[in-house]
Write a sequence for this structure.
C-alpha cells in the first residue's frame, strides 16, 4: 500500500443534522418493517404448516387423496398442484399469441392515436378484478366454451387430450385456462409492448429498407432481441395464474384424482381454489394442511417469479 | 474574504485512483479556470470543494480542503454548512421543474429553512446579478421550465447567488448553451468576480482566457490518475507555458 | 423569412409506399373473406366455425395473394404475419368487450337507488330485486380498503424512499423480499391472517383482519410503482438542491417529492386497484354480513367481492342479478380509480405548461 493510499478516507454521505437522521431512520425503519413482515409471513406459514408436512411426508405433494374423515387423516395435494400448473400452462398457450399480437400491433402497426387507445384498453383489461372475470367465466363464457369443447371432443376425440372419460365438458381445465388467459393477457402484453418500444426503431427501419419483409424483420431482428424479456413477462404472468383463486373456483370442478391430459374433461385442480373450498369446514389439523398447501403454492410461485426476474434483468439491462 | 486551499488532494472511485496530489490555492475574489481534456478529473476535483463528491458511492478522498483554514472534511463539519458557503452551478441547467421562476430563486432559502426580510428585493437583486432580470421580470410566476436553456442556466446562477455564497463553483456552465447565452454568462462571471471567488471548469480555452485570472491545467496520462500539470496566471499558462504538454494542449495539439 | 418546406421525396420510406392498385388488392383481401364468412353464417354455420374455418382460411389465402401481388415473395409471409396479428389482437378485444358488456348489460337491471342504499338484511336468494342492495358492502369495501391503504401507503412509499434515496446496505434484500411478496397467492395471505388472529382465538371474523390480509398484496405494488416514480426524478435535481445547502430531508420534501407527486399518486391508485376486487382473503377473514357494519374493528363486515361471491354461488335468478349488480359497482369503482390514475399521469406533462 502506497503512502497516498494510506491517507485515503472513504467518504459516505452521512446525515449530519438531527432532522436528516430522523429522515433516514424513518425510511430504514419502513424498509425493515417490510423485511419483518415478509419474514413473519414465511416463518408463521412454516410453523403452522409443519405438522401437516410431518404427518403426511412426501405424499403431501405428490399423493392424490384428501380424506379427513379417516384416522389418521390423509391430506395430499398432487392433483391440485398439477391442476394449477396445467391451467397456468394452458392459459399461457392461449394468452401468449394474443398478447404478443397486441403488443406488435401497438408498437409496429398502429399509428400513435390508435396505439394509445389500444394501450389504454389493455390496461383496462388489466384492472378488471378477477372476481368479475370469474362471474363472466361462470355465467357467460362457460356455456360458450362448453360448445367449443363439445365440437373439439366430437371432431378430435380420438386424440387423447381431447378425449373425455366422464363425458361432462363443463367446468373443465380447458374453460378455466381461458378465464386465466383473459386475466394474464394484459400482463404479458404490457411487458412485451414495453420491450418492443425499447427496440431501436432505426434498426427496424434499416431492416425494412434493406428489403426484408415485416415477417423476416420480426423473426430476425425483433424476436431475437426481445426474446428474453418476453419470456420473463410470460413467467411473471404464470406467477399470477398459479395464485388465481376465485375466478378458477367459479369455473372448475375440483377432483382429487390426477387428470393428466384430458383437458376437456370436467375434472381439474387448483391449489388456491382448493384452499378456498376446504377452508370453510376445516378442522385445526386440516387448516395446517391448507397452510402447507399454500406454502407449496407460494414456493412454486417464488421459483417461477425468481426465474422471471432473473431473465428480465438479464434481458433488460436498462432496468436498473 | 475567504480562502480556499486544496492540499494534496487525491480522489478514488472504488479502487480507481482518479486524481493525484492536487495542490491549488484559490485567491479570493478572483476567477480560476480549470482546463484539461475530458476524463482528466477536473469536474471530479471541483466536486470535492463543496463535498458533492461524497454523494457518489464508493468515493474516496486523501488530503485536505481548507476553507478559511478548516478542513471541510473534518468529522465535525456539516456538509450543509460547507455548501451554504460554497455554491455550485452544474453543467446541465437544473431548475426545479415544480417551481416558478421566483420560487426557484428563493428555493435555497426554503431548502435551508431560512427567512429573509424582503423576498421581492432578493429575487430582483439575484436575478439582476445573474443578468436575467430584464428577461423575466414580467413573468416571475411562470414555471421555470418555460425558459430557454440559457435562461435556465442563468436562473440557476441566480438561485445560487440568492444564497450569497462566498465561493461559486461552476462545472462547465456553458457547455450545453448557444454562443449568445455563453457570452451573457461570461459577462455575469466577470461582474461577480468583484466580490466572490469563482472556480470554473471549462473545455473552452477561449472562455478560460476571457474570464479567468488564473488557470490550472489538469491532465491524466495513459490511465494514470489526473494531476495538475501547470498552475499560474492565465496569460502565462496560455502564452508562455512552462510544461511542453500544456503548450501542446493550449495550442490544440490534443484533447 | 424561412424557405418553403421541402417536400419529402416519396421514396424516403419505400416500404411504406402503397400504390392505388395495391390498395384495391388489400380492400379485396379484407372484404371477400368477410363476405364469405357472413354467407357461411347466413347458411346456418355456427359463428365460431364460420370464423375459424371460412373467414380465417380465406383471409389468409387472400392476404397471401394480395401480399404476393404487392411485394412479391416476402409479401406472402408479411400478409400471414399481419393477418395473424390482427386475428389474435381482435380476439383480445372480443373477450374484453364481452366481459365489460356482460357486466354492464346484466348489472344494469339491478341498478336502482335502493340497490346502492339498502343492505342485505332479510334478503334471501329469491327476494325480488326491489328490496335490498349493496349499500353495506360498498361501505365495507371502502372501510376495509381504506384501512389497508392508510397502513400500506406510508410503509410502501417510505420503503421506496429507502430504496432510492438512501444508500442502505439492505436495499437488495428489501427489493428481493418485496418482489417475493408479490408472488404471495392472495388466498394464502388470507389464510395467514386467519391462522394468526382468528383460528388462534384472538378475534372473531372482523373487518380489520381483512385489511391486514390485503396489506401484503398491496405493498409490493405501491412500493414498486413508487420506487419507479422516484427513480425517474433526475439525479441533477437532487444534486441541485443539496448544492444549495439543503439537508437531505428538505431536498427530498421540497424537490424530489413534488417532482414525483403524480407517480406516487399513481402508486396509491394502482395499489387500491390491486386489492379492491380481492375476494378470497376477505372471505377467510372478514367473512360476510347482511347488515351494515360501519366499524372495521368489530364483527364481520360485508364487502362487494364477498357479496358478489355469496350470490353468484346460489343460482337463483335474482341472486345472479344481484351478483351482476355488485360486479357493475366494482367495475365502476375500478373505472373511477383507473381514470383518476390516467388523469394523474397526464397532468405530469400538463403541469409544466400552466400553473397559476
Amino acid at each position: 500500500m502506497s503512502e497516498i493510499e494510506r491517507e485515503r478516507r472513504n467518504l459516505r454521505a452521512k446525515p449530519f443534522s438531527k432532522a436528516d437522521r430522523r429522515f433516514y431512520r424513518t425510511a430504514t425503519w419502513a424498509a425493515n418493517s417490510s423485511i419483518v413482515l415478509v419474514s413473519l409471513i414465511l416463518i408463521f406459514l412454516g410453523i403452522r404448516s409443519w405438522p401437516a408436512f410431518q404427518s403426511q411426508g412426501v405424499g403431501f405433494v405428490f399423493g392424490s387423496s384428501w380424506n379427513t374423515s379417516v384416522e389418521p387423516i390423509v391430506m395430499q395435494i398432487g392433483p391440485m398442484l398439477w391442476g394449477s400448473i396445467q391451467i397456468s400452462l394452458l392459459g399461457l398457450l392461449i394468452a401468449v399469441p394474443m398478447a404478443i399480437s397486441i403488443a406488435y400491433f401497438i408498437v409496429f402497426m398502429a399509428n400513435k392515436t390508435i396505439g394509445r387507445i389500444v394501450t389504454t384498453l389493455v390496461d383496462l383489461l388489466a384492472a378488471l378484478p378477477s372476481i368479475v372475470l370469474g362471474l363472466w367465466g361462470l355465467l357467460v363464457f362457460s356455456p360458450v366454451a362448453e360448445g367449443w369443447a363439445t365440437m373439439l371432443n366430437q371432431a378430435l376425440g380420438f386424440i387423447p387430450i381431447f378425449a373425455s372419460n366422464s363425458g361432462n365438458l363443463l367446468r373443465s381445465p380447458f374453460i378455466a385456462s381461458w378465464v386465466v388467459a383473459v386475466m394474464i393477457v394484459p400482463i404479458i402484453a404490457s411487458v412485451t409492448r414495453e420491450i418492443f418500444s425499447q427496440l431501436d426503431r432505426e434498426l427496424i427501419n434499416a431492416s425494412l429498407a434493406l428489403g426484408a419483409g415485416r415477417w423476416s424483420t420480426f423473426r430476425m431482428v425483433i424476436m431475437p432481441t426481445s426474446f428474453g424479456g418476453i419470456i420473463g413477462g410470460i413467467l411473471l404472468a404464470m406467477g399470477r395464474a398459479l395464485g388465481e383463486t376465485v375466478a378458477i373456483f367459479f369455473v372448475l370442478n375440483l377432483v382429487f384424482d390426477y387428470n393428466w391430459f384430458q383437458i376437456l374433461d370436467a375434472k381439474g385442480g387448483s391449489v388456491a381454489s382448493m384452499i378456498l373450498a376446504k377452508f370453510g369446514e376445516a378442522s385445526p389439523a386440516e387448516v395446517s394442511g391448507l397452510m402447507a398447501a399454500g406454502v407449496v403454492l407460494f414456493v412454486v410461485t417464488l421459483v417461477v417469479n425468481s426465474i422471471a426476474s432473473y431473465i428480465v434483468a438479464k434481458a433488460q439491462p436498462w432496468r436498473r | 474574504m475567504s480562502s480556499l486551499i486544496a492540499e494534496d488532494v487525491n480522489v478514488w472511485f472504488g479502487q480507481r485512483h482518479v486524481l493525484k496530489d492536487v495542490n491549488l490555492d484559490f485567491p479570493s475574489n478572483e476567477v480560476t479556470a480549470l482546463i484539461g481534456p475530458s476524463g482528466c478529473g477536473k469536474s471530479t476535483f471541483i466536486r470535492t470543494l463543496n463535498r458533492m463528491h461524497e454523494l457518489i458511492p464508493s468515493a474516496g478522498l486523501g488530503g485536505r480542503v481548507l476553507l478559511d483554514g478548516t478542513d471541510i472534511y473534518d468529522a465535525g463539519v456539516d456538509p450543509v454548512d460547507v455548501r451554504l458557503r460554497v455554491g455550485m452551478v452544474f453543467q446541465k441547467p437544473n431548475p426545479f421543474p415544480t417551481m416558478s421562476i421566483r420560487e426557484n430563486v428563493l428555493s435555497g432559502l426554503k431548502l435551508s429553512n431560512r427567512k429573509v426580510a424582503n423576498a421581492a428585493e432578493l429575487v430582483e437583486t439575484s436575478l439582476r446579478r445573474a443578468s436575467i432580470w430584464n428577461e423575466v421580470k414580467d413573468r416571475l410566476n411562470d414555471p421555470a421550465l418555460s425558459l430557454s436553456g440559457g435562461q435556465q442556466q442563468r436562473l440557476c446562477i441566480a438561485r445560487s447567488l440568492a444564497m450569497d455564497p462566498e465561493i461559486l463553483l461552476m462545472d462547465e456552465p456553458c457547455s450545453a448553451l448557444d454562443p449568445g447565452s455563453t457570452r451573457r454568462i461570461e459577462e455575469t462571471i466577470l461582474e461577480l468576480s468583484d466580490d466572490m471567488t469563482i472556480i470554473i471548469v471549462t473545455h473552452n480555452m477561449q472562455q478560460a482566457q476571457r474570464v479567468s485570472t488564473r488557470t490550472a491545467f489538469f491532465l491524466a496520462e495513459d490511465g494514470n490518475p489526473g494531476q495538475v500539470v501547470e498552475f499560474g496566471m492565465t496569460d502565462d499558462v496560455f502564452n508562455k507555458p512552462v510544461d511542453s504538454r500544456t503548450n501542446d494542449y493550449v495550442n490544440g495539439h490534443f484533447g | 423569412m424561412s424557405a418553403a418546406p421541402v417536400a419529402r421525396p416519396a421514396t424516403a420510406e419505400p416500404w411504406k409506399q402503397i400504390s392505388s392498385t395495391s390498395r384495391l388488392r388489400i380492400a379485396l383481401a379484407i372484404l371477400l373473406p368477410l363476405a364469405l364468412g357472413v354467407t357461411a353464417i347466413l347458411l346456418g354455420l355456427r359463428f365460431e366455425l364460420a370464423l375459424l374455418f371460412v373467414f380465417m382460411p380465406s383471409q389468409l389465402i387472400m392476404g397471401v395473394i394480395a401480399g404476393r401481388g404487392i411485394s412479391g415473395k416476402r409479401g406472402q409471409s408479411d400478409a400471414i404475419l399481419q393477418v395473424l396479428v390482427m386475428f389474435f389482437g381482435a380476439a383480445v378485444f372480443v373477450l374484453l368487450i364481452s366481459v365489460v358488456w356482460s357486466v354492464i348489460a346484466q348489472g344494469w337491471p339491478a341498478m336502482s337507488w335502493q340497490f346502492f342504499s339498502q343492505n342485505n338484511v332479510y334478503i334471501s336468494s329469491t327476494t325480488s330485486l326491489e328490496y335490498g342492495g349493496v349499500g353495506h358492502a360498498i361501505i365495507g369495501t371502502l372501510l376495509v380498503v381504506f384501512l389497508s391503504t392508510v397502513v400500506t401507503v406510508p410503509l410502501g412509499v417510505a420503503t421506496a424512499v429507502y430504496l432510492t434515496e438512501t444508500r442502505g446496505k439492505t436495499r437488495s434484500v428489501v427489493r428481493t423480499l418485496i418482489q417475493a411478496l408479490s408472488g404471495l397467492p392472495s388466498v394464502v395471505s388470507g389464510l395467514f391472517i386467519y391462522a394468526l388472529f382468528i383460528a388462534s382465538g384472538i378475534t372473531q371474523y372482523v373487518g380489520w383482519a381483512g385489511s391486514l390480509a390485503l396489506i401484503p398484496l398491496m405493498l409490493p405494488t405501491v412500493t414498486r410503482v413508487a420506487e419507479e416514480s422516484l427513480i425517474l426524478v433526475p439525479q441533477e435535481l437532487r444534486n441541485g438542491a443539496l448544492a444549495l445547502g439543503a439537508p437531505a430531508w428538505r431536498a427530498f420534501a421540497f424537490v424530489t417529492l413534488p417532482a414525483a407527486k403524480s407517480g406516487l399518486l399513481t402508486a396509491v391508485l394502482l395499489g387500491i386497484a390491486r386489492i379492491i376486487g380481492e375476494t378470497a382473503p376477505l372471505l377467510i377473514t372478514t367473512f360476510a354480513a347482511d347488515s351494515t357494519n360501519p366499524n372495521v374493528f368489530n364483527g364481520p363486515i360485508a364487502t362487494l367481492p364477498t357479496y358478489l361471491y355469496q350470490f353468484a354461488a346460489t343460482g337463483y335468478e335474482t341472486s345472479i342479478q344481484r351478483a351482476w349488480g355488485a360486479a357493475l359497482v366494482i367495475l365502476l369503482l375500478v373505472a373511477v380509480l383507473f381514470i383518476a390514475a390516467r388523469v394523474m399521469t397526464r397532468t405530469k406533462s400538463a403541469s409544466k405548461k400552466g400553473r397559476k
